[in-house]
Design goal:
The chain is of the alpha+beta class and about 160 residues long. It has two domains: about 80 residues, Translation Initiation Factor IF3, CATH 3.30.110.60; about 40 residues, no CATH class. It contains four helices and eight strands, in the order αβαβαββββββα. Strands 1-2-4-3 form a four-stranded mixed β-sheet, sandwiched between helices. The chain has a two-stranded antiparallel ribbon with strand order 5-6. The model has no long low-confidence stretch (mean pLDDT about 85).
């Protein structure tokens, strides 16, 4: 694969995004091994923009590692400062695995309960409403759908 070419403005934007990131891949004394390349590829797929720390004192070797990673992983070289390398690659599109029939999860609502006496402060309550419930205007939690009754229980009444 060949490396991605970016304009200076795009590179500057990615540099600013990478400023607060911590290194996710470390290259030790063994250098650029197949395991390191595999881990960098996985990190690029997961994050898109990554920092790599190299624990080597040889600047020429770090520069060669930087070029090798960008060429073999199809990434864009963003920055090489000291022992830190920054790479970027667009994240691949992920398939949606959301089930269409799923109900929404629980939600928390803050409700004001006013006192029956006029001079007191209203009480703030946090109510958890599940996916099959709703909150009435009076602050009560009610079931959104009527509870299903089995055929046996219906015939008993």
């Amino acid at each position: 694969m060949s490396q991605i070419q970016l304009t200076p403005a795009q590179r500057k934007e990615h540099r600013s995004e990478a400023h607060h990131l911590d290194p996710v891949v470390m290259i030790g004394g063994d250098g650029l091994t197949a395991a390191v390349k595999k881990e960098a590829n996985a990190a690029l797929n997961a994050h898109g923009l990554i920092k790599i720390r190299v624990f080597s004192d040889d600047r020429a070797a770090r520069e060669a590692m930087f070029q090798t990673l960008t060429d073999e992983l199809g990434a864009a070289p963003i920055q090489h400062i000291g022992k830190l390398l920054v790479l970027w690659r667009p994240m691949p599109e992920r398939e949606k695995t959301v089930d269409e029939d799923r109900m929404p999860g629980p939600r928390d609502f803050k409700v004001l309960k006013y006192s029956k006496r006029g001079g007191q402060r209203p009480e703030v309550k946090t109510l958890r409403v599940l996916g099959n419930q709703r909150l009435t205007p009076g602050g009560q939690v009610k079931r959104a759908k009527p509870k299903q009754i089995s055929i046996k229980k219906r015939s008993q009444t």
